[in-house]
């Protein structure tokens, strides 16, 4: 594990591929995070297969992310930094109730129910219910991922990396990837 800091006060810690293989990233991260008031900005893989965590500790000298992603009260948008906190709280809430040890089949059914509620809210134009349904779906997906020993943040990163360089075009209001044209 190697730690460093840049001029803006952002810090990073790199966990080696070997340490991750031996100890597991979750365990390494918990040991490293213990007692730190760290605001994690990103997890990503290096070219060598190591895992880099970019973070800052309070008080941050520039506070760029907090300024840029302050909650928009009018639109109800959440602070980017809070998302990691919410994921952690969702996992803790699920563990306290034993959901981490129960069948993910039930979570999948719950996800389908929430999707139905989202579709209904969308079709009826109920914006508050759309927001509620999206939040509920995120909670259910986070628990489903936890039950299957999958990191939800890693899923989002994988999905983004898949679409980031995707080419295609809009057809009747839908983006169609190049290979499907």
Instruction: Please tell me the overall pLDDT.
Output: 78
**Helical content band:** 40-55%
| The CATH fourth-level homologous superfamily of the largest domain | MazG-like
Total beta-strand segments:
6
Tell me the β content: 15-25%
Largest sheet: 4 strands, antiparallel
Please report the distance between the alpha carbons of the first and last residues: 46 Å
List the helices and strands and how they pair.
Layout lengths: L1 E4 L5 E5 L1 H7 L1 H9 L4 E8 L5 E7 L6 H5 L11 H17 L7 H21 L2 H21 L4 H12 L4 E4 L2 E4 L4
Antiparallel strand pairs: 1-2, 2-4, 3-4, 5-6
Helix pairs in contact: 1-2, 4-6, 5-6
Brief digest:
The chain is of the alpha+beta class and 181 residues long.
Describe the structure.
Helix content is 51%, strand content 18%. It is of the alpha+beta class. It folds into 2 domains: 1-68, no CATH class; 81-167, Helix Hairpins (Orthogonal Bundle). The strands form 2 sheets. A 4-stranded antiparallel beta sheet has the order 1-2-4-3. A hairpin with a 5-residue loop joins strand 1 (2-5) and strand 2 (11-15). The longest helix has 21 residues, at 104-124. The radius of gyration is 19 Å and the shape is globular. The chain starts with a strand and ends with a strand. Residues 59-76 have low confidence and may be disordered.
């Amino acid at each position: 594990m190697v730690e460093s800091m840049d001029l803006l006060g952002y810090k990073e810690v790199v966990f080696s591929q070997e340490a991750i293989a031996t100890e597991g990233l979750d365990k390494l991260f918990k040991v490293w995070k213990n007692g730190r008031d760290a605001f994690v900005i990103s997890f990503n893989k290096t070219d060598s297969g190591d895992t880099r965590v970019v973070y800052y500790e309070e008080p941050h000298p520039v506070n760029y992310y907090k300024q840029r992603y302050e909650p928009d009260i009018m639109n109800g948008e959440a602070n980017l930094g809070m998302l990691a906190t919410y994921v952690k709280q969702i996992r803790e809430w699920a563990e306290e109730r034993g959901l981490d040890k129960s069948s993910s089949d039930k979570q999948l059914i719950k996800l389908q129910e929430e999707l139905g509620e989202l579709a209904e809210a969308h079709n009826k134009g109920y914006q508050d219910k759309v927001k509620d349904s999206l939040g509920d779906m995120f909670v259910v997906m986070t628990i489903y991922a936890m039950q299957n020993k999958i990191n939800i943040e890693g899923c989002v990163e994988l999905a983004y990396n898949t679409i980031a360089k995707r080419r295609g075009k809009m057809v009747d209001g839908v983006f169609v990837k190049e290979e499907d044209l």
